Structure prediction request, 575 residues.
Amino acid sequence: MPASLRDAVVVPPGYAFQVLYRWGDPTGIAGNLPAFKPDASNTAAEQAAQAGMHHDGMSFFPLGTDGRRALLVLNHEYTDEHLLHPDGPRPPTLEKVRKSQHAMGVSVIEIERAAAGWKQVLPSAYARRIHGNTPIRLAGPAAGSARMKTAADPTGRQVLGTLANCAMGVTPWGTYLTCEENFHGYFGADKGVANAPDVVSQRYGTVPGGQWVDWYRLDERFDVSKHPNEPNRFGWVVEIDPMDPTSTPVKRTALGRKSAESATCTLTRDGRVAVYMGDDARFECIYKFVSRDPVRPGGTSANRDLLDHGTLYTARFDANGQGAWLALTHGQHGLTPDNGFADPAEVVMHARLAASTVGATPMDRPEWIAVHPQTGELFVTLTNNSQRGAPGRPAPDAANPRANNLGGHILRWTEAGGDAGADSFRWSHFVLAGDPGLPDADTRYTGAQADPFGSPDGLYFDPAGLLWIQTDMSGPAIGKGAYANLGNNALLCADLATGQIKRFLTGPAGCEITGCVVTPDRSTLFVNIQHPGETRDPGGGTPGSAWPDGGTPGAVRPRSATVVVRRTDGGAVGT
Ligand code: FEO
Ligand code: CA
Ligand code: CA
Prediction:
């Protein structure tokens, strides 16, 4: 498909799409099916039974074996406060704070295949919203530690809520992993009320004045001057069993605390689970967790604590194309009390500082990691980094080779011996993205035929090994400067066998494309359209989109939504 600046989803000839689950649509909880009110007057309680905002990572869990019923599990990353409330964020009220908390987290919805595509099952016994106030258990090395304890939870083992849910993973035993990315934006305090922020809160951004929203004024646990340990309970990977709607989600602290983005699972040669993770902030690092024990047959109940014991590693990319996984093990490689790591809990809780201590490579915002279903080769998106090479900031290096990296890049690596449990790897670049038509773009596309793109973010291998790339050029930058010829954000499909990269779907104005999954029979692709109309104008601005409901941009509320794409002849998508 050509690049597009239309306020529409556009798919190739021979394909059709439908809109499935928009912000505010009922999730399907029995006896609680509140309809969306276009003026945003749904209450906080109603929002807790409706689709959240800003759909992101997503996966598909078949029910039964006939391919006709499934659960779709998806993240709601953040909120647009101007769209969420009838009168916007001001004046702040506790009801608005609660609605905002309820608009993040995770949806579990049931879907079934019908003649005209897929439709939501309403109500469904599986339907569930997990949000910013849902009780969640803390497990692993940091659970119960002194820095996890708060006035409301003297055990340090129970937390209310998951926030800022971005990319995801699926475990070999069939649970869903949701990643808490920009959690720091919800914590704050009045500037000057607390002691000077320490090195940890500065690195994580949980400092007075650093908040994106002023929850702390109305919901005291988000006030870092009064409850300094509360932010320690966010920034984790959270495990959810979608098949059991009564199950308590669990934050798996062994996987490290960061702006968690992706938790991509595969098996080591000896049958343990390896979880690959990005940390999406400028100059942060890539991680891998390898479990101590092998995955056992018997599904979820047989692997209940598997993610609580193992080794967390971080990646160093060397100039000769080699790389090393450096273990973040307490007492080793400088991770000692003398260097600020009192115990194993502090190593995982302060994973960013631990990564720096052992010499991990600071990357250009690592987002999603995808593992090839047949070869085990790994790919990671480095979405962009305008600060690379800026005065006082890290210079370009072998793995992050461009200063002011606006296009972003995709890096690939193979673990030594093809074993996800290895402690070394070989890496190279797959794409240095951006517009090759611009002077000084310094782009590199592997194949002879490649449609250019900018700021790769979502990344997903379908069951046949086609690589689906989702882009996230920021809303205000779309169609301008380095992105002038790249159109709106898009979904592209790469064939590693030929090196071809084709633009497959283009999104509406201001949106990000993210969260993509193909059914096992390859007949259907689900993809999320996040924040159509985004302006990032601090005053709210005028939403630049009327998608998906139509009307006049600015007069209607655009809504994030899941889109279902199929070939009209029923064939495999992307072929
Ligand atoms: Fe939520 Fe880093 O994208
Ligand atoms: Ca992302
Ligand atoms: Ca993003």
